[in-house]
Amino acid sequence: MNSDSNAKKTQTDKNRNFNQSTHHALDGIITAFKEEANLRRDFVIAMVVLVAGYFARLHYLDWLFLILAIFMVLLAEFWNTVMEHFVDLLVDRQFHPLAKKIKDISAGSVLIGACLAVIIGCVVFGHAVLYYF
Ligand SMILES: Nc1ncnc2c1ncn2[C@@H]1O[C@H](COP(=O)(O)OP(=O)(O)OP(=O)(O)O)[C@@H](O)[C@H]1O
């Protein structure tokens, strides 16, 4: 293994260019999907919703709301994952009431996002069903 690839593995300085930044960002997305079952479940649900939207022949505004809802839930899951790792890094898996508070509030934000997504889904598909039948 040459010194350049070693440097890449242990990099702690700033990214040098857009390609390097994008590469690390994609690494983050892949790691999150590999390690977080909740994220994979949300992704599968999102795919099912998109296929259902295709068959329901939604209006473009409905698509906009659905896509916003999907990205909102995925972003909330990503930030919840960041919080969990950050807290674990700080307390090294020791029990701490503040660690519990941070993780629970962070999980609560995902739940709120998911509730909003369900409401948006019900309005969009409810309207489509009423319109077509
Ligand atoms: N260091 C800690 N101190 C106190 N409570 C903790 C700590 N770590 C986790 N917990 C509690 O355990 C729960 C599960 O923590 P964990 O880090 O395993 O999250 P998770 O199971 O990945 O959560 P999610 O389902 O949101 O992905 C947290 O919601 C929190 O209530």
From TrEMBL:
Entry keywords, A to Z: ATP-binding, Cell membrane, Kinase, Lipid biosynthesis, Lipid metabolism, Magnesium, Membrane, Metal-binding, Nucleotide-binding, Phospholipid biosynthesis, Phospholipid metabolism, Transferase, Transmembrane, Transmembrane helix
A molecular function GO annotation: ATP-dependent diacylglycerol kinase activity
4Fe-4S found in the keyword field: no
Residues at which a divalent metal cation binds: 36, 84
Cofactor note: Mn(2+), Zn(2+), Cd(2+) and Co(2+) support activity to lesser extents.
Cofactor(s) the protein needs: Mg(2+)
Family annotation (CDD domains): UDPK_IM_like (cd14265)
Transmembrane segments: 43-60, 66-87, 108-132
Membrane topology: Multi-pass membrane protein
Subcellular locations according to the entry: Cell membrane
Protein residues bound to substrate: 16, 77
Enzyme class: transferase
EC number: 2.7.1.107
Chief localisation class: membrane
Superkingdom, natural source: Bacteria
Active site residues per record: 77
GO biological process: phospholipid biosynthetic process
InterPro entries the UniProt entry points to: DAGK, DAGK_sf, UDPK
Family per similarity comment: Belongs to the bacterial diacylglycerol kinase family.
Protein name: Diacylglycerol kinase
Lineage: Bacteria, Bacillati, Bacillota, Bacilli, Lactobacillales
